[in-house]
Amino acid sequence: MFLRMRTLRLIDDVEAAILERLNNPLAFELYVSAKKRDYPYYRIYMRNYVIYYVVIDDVIEVRRLLYGARDTDKHI
């Protein structure tokens, strides 16, 4: 039960962080990647996690949700 509540709270927090970006998603920090990408990655820091997203036309598409202590370059 406790794990389920924590998971639901994490999902709510991720959703809230993304919704905060909807008005101006391109005005935030870019993730500079060595890999060539069709769309640049942006990031949202949320608690101990980082949400990586791209903007395609008027849509925010979440590409990754990583624990902050992970080796980002290895996973993206």
Describe this structure as you would to a colleague.
By secondary structure, this protein is of the alpha+beta class. Helices cover 32% and strands 33% of the residues. The chain is built from two helices and four strands; from the N terminus they run H-E-E-E-E-H. It has helices spanning 2-21, 72-75, and strands at residues 30-31, 41-46, 49-56, 59-67. The chain has a four-stranded antiparallel beta sheet with strand order 1-2-3-4. Strand 3 and strand 4 (59-67) form a beta hairpin.
Could you name the key traits of this structure?
76 residues, alpha+beta, 4-stranded antiparallel sheet, 4 strands, globular
Q: Which structural class should the secondary elements be placed in?
A: alpha+beta
Low-pLDDT stretches: none
Instruction: Tell how many strands the DSSP assignment holds.
Output: 4
Order of helices and strands: HEEEEH
Number of contiguous helices = 2
Strand order of the largest sheet: 1-2-3-4
Distance between the termini: 32 Å
Reported for the largest beta sheet, the result is: 4 strands, antiparallel
3D shape: globular
Helical proportion, percent range: 25-40%
What amount of the residues lies in strands?
25-35%
Average per-residue pLDDT, rounded, comes to 88
Radius of gyration: 13 Å
